[in-house]
Amino acid sequence: MIPTPDVSHLTDKDYSIIYEPAEDTFLFLDALEADAGDLKELKALICLEVGSGSGCISSFVAQILGPSVRAISFSLAGIKVSLECINTSFASPLIHRLWHQVDIILFNPPYVPTEYEEARFAQQGKSIAGAWAGGYDGMQVTNEFLEIVEDLLSERGLFYLVALKQNNVPEIQKRMLHEHSLESKVVLQRRAGREHLFILRFKRQNPS
Amino acid sequence: MVRLVTHNLLACHAKDCNTNNFPLGFQNVQLEIREAEFNPDFVRAFLPKIEWNALVKTARELGDTSLPDEQPEMVDDDFLQNLHHVLFELHVIEGAMVCPNCKHVYPISDGIPNMLLAEHEIA
């Protein structure tokens, strides 16, 4: 059993702008632990987490990979955690250089269905709502990233995504297969209060 | 932490800026050196990911002249140690990165590069 990363250095003030680890985070950790064998086998050099919040997920992956493996973890959010942090929208300044180079991609997106304007407003500002407001069917932000994830994923790379039942998981899986040739499976699913959460894992259909 | 490993992977992504947009140039840099654990196997494995000319040029601009013009054919521990220092121990804490093509300025504050673009600058 791998211990949950200690995020006790973060205060209530931090949690007014970043997402405090919650049920979805813990399900994500459980899924990654279940996949530990596959993750190690990748011999990852570059990991990328989009919107890393507390940094808990990336730290956990670093523990799975072990001290002898030193993958570079990019945290794409403007918040300081002990990784390479870049304040950017998705990964666009990295695509030019990281084309098909990223071995592990992690994304726990803002997946809660909200009004379109609410999500747009939340993503532009620095409010905590940006961590959950996902617009129509909760997929407004996720869809933007799904369009570019194949560009980043390495030949045998793995992409993990958190989704809610209302996001229409079978549709996401079908679309990624048909439009980007990424096959997927549900690693774990769990009901937590009113949320029915899924952890999806994508990889190339025919890696060379 | 804008370490040179990160800098070596960032290109300008402003609208219509597609050529000569890498590497970004450093400006008004405040540099800090922080020791990091040396893992020769990792540095060796990471070598093919590096854009060599950009790394050497940038390191020299920051005052580190330990890397040769060309990647050596024989990779020894001294070389890996120097490379490790350049990639992982030089931290740009404050300053900016400027696109050589469109001159867009990406500020660095408290070690975090701000790569966000205004709405009209997004491709």
From TrEMBL, chain A:
SUPFAM superfamilies named in the record? S-adenosyl-L-methionine-dependent methyltransferases
Q: Which UniProt keywords apply?
A: Methyltransferase, Nucleus, S-adenosyl-L-methionine, Transferase
Q: Which InterPro entries match?
A: DNA_methylase_N6_adenine_CS (IPR002052), Euk-Arch_PrmC-MTase (IPR052190), SAM-dependent_MTases_sf (IPR029063)
Q: Which PROSITE patterns match?
A: N6_MTASE
CC annotations in GO = eRF1 methyltransferase complex; nucleus
Q: Report the subcellular localization.
A: Nucleus
| Single GO MF annotation | S-adenosylmethionine-dependent methyltransferase activity
Q: Which GO terms describe its biological process?
A: methylation
Q: Which PANTHER family match?
A: METHYLTRANSFERASE N6AMT1
Q: Which family does it belong to?
A: Belongs to the eukaryotic/archaeal PrmC-related family.
Q: What is this protein identified as?
A: Uncharacterized protein
Which species is the source of this protein? Leucocoprinus leucothites
The record lists the lineage as: Eukaryota, Fungi, Dikarya, Basidiomycota, Agaricomycotina
UniProtKB/TrEMBL annotation, chain B:
State the family it belongs to: Belongs to the TRM112 family.
Organism field = Leucocoprinus leucothites
Q: A Pfam family in this protein?
A: Trm112p
Any Gene Ontology biological process = rRNA (guanine-N7)-methylation
Instruction: Supply the InterPro entries for this chain.
Output: Trm112 (IPR039127), Trm112-like (IPR005651)
Quaternary structure?
Interacts with TRM9.
User: What terms describe the molecular function in GO for this protein?
Assistant: protein heterodimerization activity
- This chain belongs to the protein called Trm112p-domain-containing protein
